[in-house]
Amino acid sequence: MSDATSNANTIDAPTPEKGIAAAEAKNNPVLAADGTPLKKSLRRALRAQKLRALMLIAPLLIFVLVTFIAPILDMLFRSIENQIVSDTLPRTTSQLSEWDPATDELPPEAVYEAFYYDLFAAVEARQHTRLGQRLNYENTGVSSLFRGSGRDLDDFREDQVEYIEDFSPEWEDAGYWLSLMSGEGGEDFLDTRRDAILALIRESKRSPLGDLWCATIATCATAPEDIDIGYTPSAEVIDLLPRTSEAYADFALITVLEEEDSIAEEEPWEAVYVALAQDLAETPESELAAFSGPQAQALVDLKAGLADVEAQSFRDLFAQSDDDWVTPSPWRTIQTYAPAYTTGYFLNAADMQKTPDGPEFRPENERIYGLLLQRTMFLSLTITFSCILLGYPIAYLLSNLPMRTANLLMILVLLPFWTSLLVRTSAWKVMLQQQGVINDVLVWLGLVGDGSRLVMINNQFGTIVAMTHILLPFMILPMYSVMSTIPPSYVRAAKSLGATNWTTFWRVYFPQSVPGIGAGSILVFILSIGYYITPEIVGGTTGTFISNRIAYHISSSLNWGLAAALGSILLVVVLALYWAYDRIVGIDNVKLGG
Amino acid sequence: MAEQGNGEAFVAFERVQKSYDGETLVVKDLNLSMPKGEFLTMLGPSGSGKTTCLMMLAGFETATHGDILLDGVSINNIPPHKRGIGMVFQNYALFPHMTVAENLAFPLEVRKIGKAEREKKVRHALDMVQMGEFGNRRPAQLSGGQQQRIALARALVFEPELVLMDEPLGALDKQLREHMQFEITNLAHDLGITVVYVTHDQTEALTMSDRVAVFNDGRIQQLAAPDELYERPQNSFVAQFIGENNTLEGTIQDIADGRCTVRLDGGELIDANPINVTKPGERTRVSIRPERVEINKDRLGEGAHTLKAKVLEFVYMGDIFRTRLRVAGKDDFVIKTRNAPDQVRLKPGQDIEIGWMPEDCRALDAH
């Protein structure tokens, strides 16, 4: 026995000496037969293998990237994306940036003027309702404000418009307008306006890759940036009549790009007439007279004539259209959401809102998402625990039965998997409703009075029952696969050492089955936290999850930004829980089998 | 075959039967008794019922019929955890989620032994198997041999009087296994514990045990001390199972006074020692150990029997020579000769004469 000591110590015990030897080996790399470092030649040898593996997964990888990862990223990106305000109202947002929203003062006339031109173009491009809807998420009522005033815009400074139209029949002629505005040297101006209008009508330019595709492989329609407008602005007119040129360019671009009409046949918008009147009023007669075009005299005459026509301020005109335009509220909203990226959706998802003083919580009675998130967590936890309680004995039984019986039972466990989710959920509806099977049986047994039937559906109870049933296999399977790897000799050993059945279970069997519980719990919890269909059907109002709200914003309210923000929060919560679990339990301990 | 249970028996099986399916008996009418302090090995091929017997003794299986007595008391209805029997499993069954020390403390904890006492006993048990420094390791960090020692220490730490071992050395390599055989026997004798040891390795059984019970087909074929078992097998199964054996088949010609003559199937007539044959005309299987066959006529004593043989194969094995011969029409007759300085090295094709003493030639049943 004396020699056993040394024997026992040298069997495989890792010693510090071995560790030091290994570290030394690291500093002096082992060389292969031809003198190259062994690691390098190993890497070379494995490269072909890795390349082959990559080729094998490439089709799936590309498929997943294109159809799954990319759309999800795009969707998540929507939670911060907010270009719509600055794209639709570019002039207004730049004018508004100098306005201090903290004061009760209204924005200056310049803002109203810019807003008139922006909104006019947006109405013509039929984009103003979209913007109204977007801003309505932040400030209820903005949508109808936009829609209402959009209808009134045609009548702004009606007198001036009519005066010009009546002044001489030429001013109602599309060709006359075109010849007035056309000339040379305005290509850059038109390109700038084209970019703005493309942003407004949400068209994007063709990328270099697209160019290549169209040049080599496919025949494409003309890219929006290359479509011929049939009009080159005159640099002289741009200097002389800047507002008119801008309004006319907008008109020309929208008419051609969006309406697909010819500007040689379309009478310009009212906004172009209003712009002309404004320009004429501000331009000295001498400059007009010096205009090189044949219309110089006509412009001088028009200026003289318009001097007598009264022009109301844009602020007053908007005030007449709707009183709300002379309150700071809509302007604050526009200014707050002017940046291209916003935290607004996330604040909204956290029951907060943006104010001039920074983010703050919404009033108590308007906070719903925090409550929903809490409820989602609570219900998911309850479902997970119910699954553990119901699943553990089944998994134990399965792993301790002879193979034949276990397989039969396993089919029963898996049976729900082969039945449509909708059918199972609907079955629960039949079972649980007040005139349903369970209530009928309870009434028949006399346990419950006919008048006081239990309410078991369209509430949290219904959600918990139905989802526990649906998710139970996801708990049983990982538990079973872990339990079936626990050799029966552990239990026997514990008993032979004097442990009672309970001690054996609690001290020996249970700790070894914990990885199965962990795997099942993660699976069930993560599945249930994002569950949609079952709570939608049996959850009523108190048993719905945050996913139901997300679905509502995707399909009903169309507030995709908020849906994306809620989805992102859900994703972060799940990842955080996963991380915490990894830290506490260790994901290596989670076994799905083997 | 086996003696009936008596007052002194520490462990006794009385007419024990076991059936799993109600149709076939895995253990058929087992009678066995062993005194305190004995090291008894149950040896047999797989499926012979030896492990079932051990499990019945441990309480993990219940006997279909019969009594199992421990210290004179029937333990049929005592659950395993109340039997106080230590057990070592084939795969050690060390609890993977506990350290070595916790594993050892487990049986003491469930016996509600105080912490100080517990630690003392754990330390003592670890020292006993020379594993004193490994208390804080997890079983997975130990080698097979180390796990084996821990499993042994755990089975002994609560000082049971009876320890069961179910092929405990099966997973170890040869050298370590031989070392552990030696250690286990020493420990058992030092502590004076009674051991029931199950194995299918006959060398292990012969080297470790006080007595060996050879199992086959649900019955004990022979229960005897190792030398007795090897030299005087009671039937042809035991003769075949323990050690190497030459068998020649034939018919009893004459039987009287502890001697018989056998007419071999090849026609030769030989003398033999009748063991479980009774009357002339009975078929028999004659068994001779390879090392009891002599090729040097001068060394044979009075009354020895000789036969003609042809050398077929000669294998040099270092300490011995193993020679395969054709004897009485059979090609698988093996003899072993010691590699002594004066030993003859036979050549294939050589015709020789071999001989043995009639008492070494045992006429057994022909089953």
From TrEMBL, chain A:
<dbReference type="GO" id="GO:0005886">
    <property type="term" value="C:plasma membrane"/>
</dbReference>
<dbReference type="InterPro" id="IPR000515">
    <property type="entry name" value="MetI-like"/>
</dbReference>
<feature type="transmembrane region" description="Helical">
    <location>
        <begin position="405"/>
        <end position="423"/>
    </location>
</feature>
<keyword id="KW-0812">Transmembrane</keyword>
<keyword id="KW-1003">Cell membrane</keyword>
<feature type="transmembrane region" description="Helical">
    <location>
        <begin position="514"/>
        <end position="533"/>
    </location>
</feature>
<protein>
    <submittedName>
        <fullName>Putative spermidine/putrescine transport system permease protein</fullName>
    </submittedName>
</protein>
<comment type="similarity">
    <text>Belongs to the binding-protein-dependent transport system permease family. CysTW subfamily.</text>
</comment>
<dbReference type="Pfam" id="PF00528">
    <property type="entry name" value="BPD_transp_1"/>
</dbReference>
<keyword id="KW-0813">Transport</keyword>
<feature type="transmembrane region" description="Helical">
    <location>
        <begin position="560"/>
        <end position="581"/>
    </location>
</feature>
<feature type="domain" description="ABC transmembrane type-1">
    <location>
        <begin position="373"/>
        <end position="581"/>
    </location>
</feature>
<feature type="transmembrane region" description="Helical">
    <location>
        <begin position="461"/>
        <end position="482"/>
    </location>
</feature>
<dbReference type="GO" id="GO:0055085">
    <property type="term" value="P:transmembrane transport"/>
</dbReference>
<keyword id="KW-0472">Membrane</keyword>
<feature type="transmembrane region" description="Helical">
    <location>
        <begin position="377"/>
        <end position="398"/>
    </location>
</feature>
<dbReference type="InterPro" id="IPR035906">
    <property type="entry name" value="MetI-like_sf"/>
</dbReference>
<feature type="transmembrane region" description="Helical">
    <location>
        <begin position="53"/>
        <end position="73"/>
    </location>
</feature>
<keyword id="KW-1133">Transmembrane helix</keyword>
From TrEMBL, chain B:
<dbReference type="GO" id="GO:0015417">
    <property type="term" value="F:ABC-type polyamine transporter activity"/>
</dbReference>
<dbReference type="InterPro" id="IPR005893">
    <property type="entry name" value="PotA-like"/>
</dbReference>
<dbReference type="InterPro" id="IPR050093">
    <property type="entry name" value="ABC_SmlMolc_Importer"/>
</dbReference>
<keyword id="KW-0813">Transport</keyword>
<feature type="domain" description="ABC transporter">
    <location>
        <begin position="11"/>
        <end position="242"/>
    </location>
</feature>
<dbReference type="GO" id="GO:0016887">
    <property type="term" value="F:ATP hydrolysis activity"/>
</dbReference>
<dbReference type="Pfam" id="PF08402">
    <property type="entry name" value="TOBE_2"/>
</dbReference>
<dbReference type="InterPro" id="IPR003439">
    <property type="entry name" value="ABC_transporter-like_ATP-bd"/>
</dbReference>
<keyword id="KW-0472">Membrane</keyword>
<dbReference type="GO" id="GO:0043190">
    <property type="term" value="C:ATP-binding cassette (ABC) transporter complex"/>
</dbReference>
<keyword id="KW-0067">ATP-binding</keyword>
<dbReference type="InterPro" id="IPR003593">
    <property type="entry name" value="AAA+_ATPase"/>
</dbReference>
<keyword id="KW-0547">Nucleotide-binding</keyword>
<dbReference type="Pfam" id="PF00005">
    <property type="entry name" value="ABC_tran"/>
</dbReference>
<dbReference type="InterPro" id="IPR017871">
    <property type="entry name" value="ABC_transporter-like_CS"/>
</dbReference>
<dbReference type="InterPro" id="IPR008995">
    <property type="entry name" value="Mo/tungstate-bd_C_term_dom"/>
</dbReference>
<keyword id="KW-1278">Translocase</keyword>
<dbReference type="GO" id="GO:0005524">
    <property type="term" value="F:ATP binding"/>
</dbReference>
<comment type="similarity">
    <text>Belongs to the ABC transporter superfamily. Spermidine/putrescine importer (TC 3.A.1.11.1) family.</text>
</comment>
<dbReference type="InterPro" id="IPR013611">
    <property type="entry name" value="Transp-assoc_OB_typ2"/>
</dbReference>
<keyword id="KW-1003">Cell membrane</keyword>
<comment type="function">
    <text>Part of the ABC transporter complex PotABCD involved in spermidine/putrescine import. Responsible for energy coupling to the transport system.</text>
</comment>
